[in-house]
């Protein structure tokens, strides 16, 4: 048995119809590691992290998360998901619930934490992401950046072992990006295991131990942020970097 | 002469009240049962099992595609042939409940399907069980879409209940038929019958309109 990481892809393949969206992915994410996944749109990076919490099923290969093999009948997917926070590009806050209710819903119903205790923890989390004054606001009353921070607090409320971010700042106005990135940096610095799909290279340089570059469903290149940004090894990654760094 | 007719009509008010009562009781029971059953079927139908989905779908299509009068006759006259004896009241309740459930099922399915997939994914990702996802995330949002046509469906149900007079239940419509035999003024009698139905239905029509307006509001919380 080889050493296993927190998230372990071994020869993972996935098809959408005849399209091979994930090609022979092998990647291991260690506990407390922050991995940034980047690549052109349609390269399979979102699909990659959606596989980790089972929002997408893999076709073949092995994917082991927190010691549990996905697709194995013995794996309780609902249970495993409570250990994995997922932040969506489009926030996906529950529009009929306040910020606080969004944060406390799963702790109360899944973790069975008493309401008063969950609300206390929820208020603290919202304060931590800078939204102490918005606990009773509905998502529609919040800006995009505020919504995304509530979404991160919602994940943190479950005290997950892993957090996945699917282009968390792509739907935001430029002036709101940094407030979300600041929260993500804080989460990373507390030692969270993270996989982050993003093109925010400043974020990658600051907290990522590794950058993974994907193209057409395959991992093309993988290295430390410094290596990747300063000395990209392939033509495809050079072409990609020249496009996103030019402006 | 019209004076005599009016006097005679006034004399039949206990019968009219009984008929109105029967209409309200029939409608209310089948409305409650039909709502429960309709929500159950709608939730089952969106559960992702294709066999269950198509079975319920076929039943709903069958019921929606046949006249209610025929359904009531089938239940009341054909079931006894198979040894299931039903009194008219039970047969009426079954037929009306089934009809309501089928229409409500379709309304609920439309409501559930209107909830964005991202909502279900968010609930899934936080480890909510299937029932918790439905109860906490999907249904409250679906209710925005469901409530106005649901109340509208109740109005239709109350009016459809007039068909049960065909199997001998003394509801408001049948009272009309009985009274018109004594007071030969169909126009007047059935005008009053219509007024009776309208009095029951109008508050619901108002409610549907109010709900529609409230559902359009900012974040549209729905208290279940």
Automatic annotation (TrEMBL), chain A:
Question: How does it sit in the bilayer?
Answer: Peripheral membrane protein
Q: Which GO terms describe its cellular component?
A: plasma membrane
- Stretch forming the signal peptide: none
The molecular function terms of the Gene Ontology recorded here are:
ABC-type amino acid transporter activity; ATP binding; ATP hydrolysis activity
Print the organism lineage. Bacteria, Pseudomonadati, Pseudomonadota, Alphaproteobacteria, Hyphomicrobiales
Instruction: Output the InterPro entries linked to this UniProt entry.
Output: AAA+_ATPase, ABC_ATPase_HisP-typ, ABC_transporter-like_ATP-bd, ABC_transporter-like_CS, MetN_ABC_transporter-like, P-loop_NTPase
- This protein's species is Rhizobium loti
| Protein name as it appears in the record | Amino acid ABC transporter ATP-binding protein (PAAT family)
Q: SMART domains from the xrefs?
A: AAA
Q: Which PANTHER family match?
A: AMINO ACID IMPORT ATP-BINDING PROTEIN, GLUTAMATE_ASPARTATE IMPORT ATP-BINDING PROTEIN GLTL
Automatic annotation (TrEMBL), chain B:
Q: Where in the cell is it found?
A: Cell inner membrane; Cell membrane
What does UniProt list as this organism's lineage? Bacteria, Pseudomonadati, Pseudomonadota, Alphaproteobacteria, Hyphomicrobiales
User: For this UniProt entry, which segments traverse the membrane?
Assistant: 20-44, 56-79, 91-116, 187-205
Q: Which Pfam families match?
A: BPD_transp_1 (PF00528)
State if Nuclease is listed as a keyword: no
Q: How does it sit in the membrane?
A: Multi-pass membrane protein
- Protein name in UniProt: Amino acid ABC transporter membrane protein 2 (PAAT family)
One cellular component term from this protein's GO annotations in UniProt: ATP-binding cassette (ABC) transporter complex
Task: Name the protein family.
Answer: Belongs to the binding-protein-dependent transport system permease family. HisMQ subfamily.
